[in-house]
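We emphasize that the prediction below concerns an isolated chain of 249 residues; any contacts that depend on oligomerization or on bound cofactors are therefore not represented. The input was used exactly as deposited, without trimming of termini.
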Amino acid sequence: MFLTKPLHTFGNYLMLMGKVFARPERMRSFFKQYFKEMSQLGVDSIGIVLLISFFIGAVICIQIKLNIQSPWMPRFVTGYTTREIMLLEFSSAIMCLILAGKVGSNIASELGTMRVTQQIDALEIMGVNSANFLILPKIAGLVTMIPFLVTFSIGAGIIGAYATGWFADVINPEDLTYGLQYEFTEWFVWYGIIKSFFFAFIIASVSSFYGYTVEGGSIEVGKASTDAVVHSSILILFSDLILTHLLSI
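Result of the prediction step, given as a token string:
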């Protein structure tokens, strides 16, 4: 009995994804929606990504310098550790958790509103594959934009770390630069981007599922938005654990 509801939900999710990943009936309409979703889900999220990453990069640098680094450690350790944290976890996993709140709730509420106002029913009456028409552009748009958001997050975090040296006088910029360059591994950049593809798919597909399957009225739409964020965040954390293990082998 305990597993009945989760298995039922997972089965409905798989069935919906089966409808989503069908060939679009009208490619011109698909690409129009695709570029629209890239703008709404990706471009409109750049601002919050840059802002949060800038301050997180600065805070990480300050915390490491003041509370972890000791006279026994090389002075470049602060820059080295800041870079590794931004590349390996924050700019992929933690940033996608933040995006799950912004983007996921937006997707769920949009589709949920369309469901309760019977707009989705109208599409189905006209013979349109509503799941494919509404959800596939959202998944494709977010998955396309996620590498750019990760790259912007890494850059903003590093700039935030430099800001602590230039304006707060916490660390010597030369030491920070040496630490950021010390034993740099290009794979770590791809490591974060590869993980973010999976996270983007989770955010878009899970949020779409909860919005698309809403039953009821405006109260249920709000609950669906909350469920979308919560379940997306849990799945991101779980998949982060699995992907970290697989990519580190």
